[in-house]
Amino acid sequence: MASIDTQKTKTSNSEDWGDFWSRSAIDACTAQFPDDARKTIADHWRGIFAALPDGISILDVATGRGAVLHLAQNTLPSLNGVSMLGVDQAEIETAALPAGDAAPIVIKGGIDAADLPLPDGAFDLVTSQFGLEYADFHRALGECIRVCRGRFVALVHAADGIVVRQNGAQSGQIGWLMGEIGFTRLLKDHFAAPSRTSAGHMDHALTAIRERARTEENPGMLAKLYNDALELQNLAARYPVAEILNMIDGMEYRMAAHAMRMRALADAGRDANEMQAAAALLEAAGFAAPSLAPERTQSGHLVGWWIDAARTAP
């Protein structure tokens, strides 16, 4: 069971984004999206990269582990003279990339998107995928404008989109589990000193989780935690009590960290008016006719906003 770690785990109630990315796949930010949305997003980026010339310089802002840059690396007609830099506030470095990845991808961590330590007009293409909006959005956009001498393309979470809605709901689910249900406290009480009473409390909690999952648009996290609790019962026959309690501490830490990320995601979503204001900022800075386009699933659910603009030639 991947979610229960038998090694000692931190119990802090805050999440370090660097730690998150060190544990995550390159495409973690879209991994839970519907398959059709993941494909159309990737295809959109590929269409951009396939038309780029040799010697292009690309900056990806709030890059995570460089998902957009990896698409570029695998799509560009030629890597001759190409430079690709990703920056992120999390402490992520090139060394964290999978073994075998070749230059020219470089990732620098500890960099705020709203205060880029980069020269004016340094990049032909500046990109961001579900990242720019986690910073001070307008300051970060201003920094992207400043360092871009060519084209700017970003995909931004939609405030009224399905991703923001479902992930915001997950934050609420965790608050309910940790507060009203007392999920991890009940787990610890039961496995530290099993009794008929503690088993009854656990059965009541699991029933409540199962019932709430039936009412949620995206019950995946509740279902996972429900199954984790059942799996702990199997592991309790093979591991000492102290190790089981350590696993529950790890579960509690990950729940708190996930809730923090989901709150941040919900707060990061931008509405149509904010995106129109972003387009106006680009136009005022000398970018010609910035375009805004919604990214939707096949069933019509809004996922995010594409914003695309090219600087007017002097």
TrEMBL record:
It holds the Pfam family Methyltransf_11. Residues 59-149 form the Methyltransferase type domain. SUPFAM superfamilies: S-adenosyl-L-methionine-dependent methyltransferases. GO terms for biological process: methylation. Keywords: Methyltransferase, Transferase. One of its GO terms (molecular function) is S-adenosylmethionine-dependent methyltransferase activity. This is Methyltransferase family protein.
